[in-house]
Amino acid sequence: MRTPISTQLAATHSAAFDVPRPWTAKEIDDLLAQSGMHLVGDATCFAIARTVVDETELLTIATHPDHQKQGHARRVLHRLFELAHRSGSRQIFLEVASTNAPAIGLYHAIGFSTVGMRPRYYQTPERQWIDAIVMTRALPVKSR
What is the rounded CA–CA span in Å between residue 78 and residue 73? Predict the structure, then answer.
């Protein structure tokens, strides 16, 4: 019997990080059932985003630790940019834990800019608070 994709994604999400807390398969299923949702990638590396009007929010991206540092996240993000552009988005934004230096470095390298900070946005399993950095990246205007 095949494992449902949401179960595989939840396992990757759990293996990838603990801040913010990992999502369950049910939470992933519930999100993906909503209007405007996008899933890009596979159980090795995936991103979930939501497009509303002309903005796309990257809700999460996770790469299984066995597959990190191989360019998977960069490829998934570029596919998300294309999908968001085709959906009419003009920009994509995200929040990232201020302690997640590898992700912040990747986001800067692919064109994201820091636009703000959300103090005490994430909580660690040890109940400590971590700020979130808000980042955005313009997308090309969709031609008509």
Answer: 9
